[in-house]
Amino acid sequence: MPSGSRDNNLEKSRHPSSPQWTLLGCGALGGVFASLLTLSDQPTRVLLRDRHRATLHPGIDFTSLEGYTQLLAIERGFVSQPGKIKRLLVMTKANQVVPALTPLVGILATDTPIVLLHNGMGIAEQVVQLFPHNPVIAGVTSHGAMQGGHFVFRHTGKGETWLGPVNDAAKAHAYLAEDLASALGQAGWDEQILTRQWQKLAINCAINPLTALYKLKNGDLAGPRFADVLQQVCVEVADVMQAEGQATSSDELLRRVMMVVELTADNYSSMYQDMDLGRETEIEAITGFLLARAAKHGIAVPVNQGLYQAIKEKS
């Protein structure tokens, strides 16, 4: 299909041998993941809040990395009547995870795995408290996504996705990474997912506040203007990580940050998009989490503290 063209036929994929994915949250990344799962012939539906019942639900308008546009029919459900959930993929913003899951307490079967894919940290522990018997799985992803309108999504960057167990019950569900890999091109299982979460947190602490405050694309951070502040952010995060028992160095974190800056040069960070649209940001789960852990260890993190305060004042 030529770039920019549209398939006028609604496409709905079904693969009876694979349990259905239920995605809670259909923002930019949720819409892209729902589309990619559908295109890989995995049964997929999105679970929406009840206030969306009165909203027009067109097909998902999905534009791939290559610029191909397709209209996809994806099943929808509502939180008040969730139906049978076999595997739950939570794609909301970090600050929305617990409120979005709370209506499912006492309804979700205890053997249903809950996969969390959001920025920041400190949320998974709250989910385990809500669902003490369910397998809870943490994930990190570096895929890029943008939402261009009502159920209009664009895949803006291909990245890595990693899942890992938060509790013992989750350790039997490594196969979920294999199913995601068939849709995303890469996904892996890592028993030490906490390390990957900290590495992602470091990247988010560096890129998200700066791009949001200065209204920049990620690639704009590559110049000399931001070299010092990026280095200082990484020094502070490395200090906290080491206190948390995570072996790392500021040089390693900075290298990871600059690699992401280069690979996502034309992307706008999620925090930039949230602030631009007047939405609540994930600053509490990102820099706020770092500040809390730093305070616990008595570590000064003035640069991150300043970025946190600036985002709070502008939000």
UniProtKB/TrEMBL annotation:
Family label: Belongs to the ketopantoate reductase family.
Domain Ketopantoate reductase N-terminal: 22-167
Protein name: 2-dehydropantoate 2-reductase
Chain ranges of the Ketopantoate reductase C-terminal domain: 193-314
Metabolic or biological pathway, per its Swiss-Prot or TrEMBL entry: Cofactor biosynthesis; (R)-pantothenate biosynthesis; (R)-pantoate from 3-methyl-2-oxobutanoate: step 2/2
Domain of life from the UniProt record: Bacteria
Keyword Oxidoreductase included in the entry's annotation: yes
Gene3D superfamilies: N-(1-d-carboxylethyl)-l-norvaline Dehydrogenase, domain 2, NAD(P)-binding Rossmann-like Domain
NCBIfam families associated with the record: apbA_panE
Keywords assigned: NADP, Oxidoreductase, Pantothenate biosynthesis
Function statement: Catalyzes the NADPH-dependent reduction of ketopantoate into pantoic acid.
